[in-house]
Design a protein that fits this description.
Distance between the termini: 22 Å
Strand content: 5-15%
CATH topology: TIM Barrel
Helix content: 25-40%
Strand order of the largest sheet: 5-1-2-6-7-8-9-10
CATH superfamily: Aldolase class I
Number of strands: 12
Number of helices: 11
């Protein structure tokens, strides 16, 4: 069996030689090719014309699974994340269980990111040794979900919450900012999911050549920072979405308990602007190209100057407004990262 490995992970495992300023702290593996689903933003979508070795901006060369597994111990990574391209049959999905067992036997925590059709499948992955599962919602509203993913947002959300109730503290999701939702829709959904014990990993929409959304603009950095800050305050138990003010769907104020002076203190270490999701996941270059001066998700701890810059950016955007919510980050190339 072959596994695709993010190029950054391949470098960390000694399978490829590349230069990267911020190596991944999680080993990112991809199981399967060409999903049976047809998400408009995804290079692996059924009708996508993108390269088979792409997921988001990251390239994923293939290697024998046992060689990959043998190199994980002692590599320095602290977690394994298996990104599953949804197969076409339950039998194929069942083949994932022994792979997870082999990975977990190496002693590293293993997270599986995929569509799980049932509680029984989630239970099988946990029995095999997975310490967490991620069921990607991606979209934050029913209209956007129907347009970019297809199917029922209500049903997908209900299933995610059902799995989270059955396995408390072990379930997460991915949300993509910039698919067409408002900031209010995204933040209120984050609030609901955090309240129900679902761990949220935030992404910025990334246009990829060959997908149906290849020419859709990514979100503005300022808009993304507002969502990140709201997510941070909510997940830290410091605030609820009901306290925030929105103007035509855009976050305009964090409420009377959060004046600028307090936000500078609460956000001053920069943690709000780092990659979110599973512990020890930093996902370098999933949303941006190497060398891009300011990332959407910082894959490392921010220094004092960076943290202060991002807090200033956030506060300035609240004062000035950013009604369009989109930017000009339109590079559609692939990236040698993650």
């Amino acid at each position: 069996m072959m596994l695709r490995v993010s190029l950054g992970t391949a470098q960390v495992l000694g399978l490829r030689s590349i230069r990267q300023a911020h190596p991944p702290t999680t080993a990112y593996l991809m199981w399967g090719e060409k999903c049976r689903r047809n998400c408009a933003f995804c290079a692996q979508a059924r009708e996508s014309d993108s390269r088979a070795d792409l997921l988001s901006r990251v390239t994923w060369p293939a290697f024998p699974a046992q060689e990959v597994i043998s190199r994980l111990p002692g590599s320095g990574v602290r977690r394994v994340c298996v990104q599953v391209v949804e197969p076409g049959s339950p039998r194929e999905m069942a083949d994932l269980v022994p792979l997870v067992a082999d990975l977990a036997a190496g002693g590293l925590p293993v997270c599986v990111s995929c569509f799980l059709p049932s509680l029984q499948m989630a239970e099988a992955l946990f029995r095999a040794g997975a310490d967490g599962v991620t069921l990607p919602l991606d979209a934050a509203s029913a209209p956007v979900y129907g347009r970019v993913k297809g199917g029922s947002f209500a049903a997908a959300l209900a299933h995610l919450e059902r799995v989270a109730r059955a396995f408390p503290g072990r379930v997460g999701t991915h949300l993509i900012v910039g698919l067409g939702e408002s900031e209010e829709e995204m933040i209120r959904l984050i609030d609901r999911l955090v309240e129900r014990g679902v761990r949220v990993g935030l992404f910025a929409f990334t246009p990829v050549a060959g997908t149906r959304m290849a020419h859709h603009p990514p979100p503005s950095l300022e808009g993304y920072r507002r969502v990140q800050a709201a997510h941070y305050l909510i997940r830290q138990g410091l605030a609820r979405a009901e306290e925030f003010s929105f103007a035509e769907g855009r976050l305009s104020d964090f409420g009377p308990r959060f004046p600028a002076s307090r936000l500078r203190v609460l956000l001053g270490d920069g943690e709000a602007f780092r990659t979110t999701g599973c512990p020890d996941c930093n996902r370098p270059y999933y949303n941006e190209r190497p060398g891009q001066p300011v990332p959407y998700n910082y894959p490392h701890a921010l220094d004092r100057e960076q943290a202060e810059q991002e807090v200033r950016r956030l506060l300035s955007s609240l004062e000035a407004g950013d009604p369009a919510g989109t930017g000009a980050r339109r590079d559609e190339g692939a990236c040698a990262g993650g």
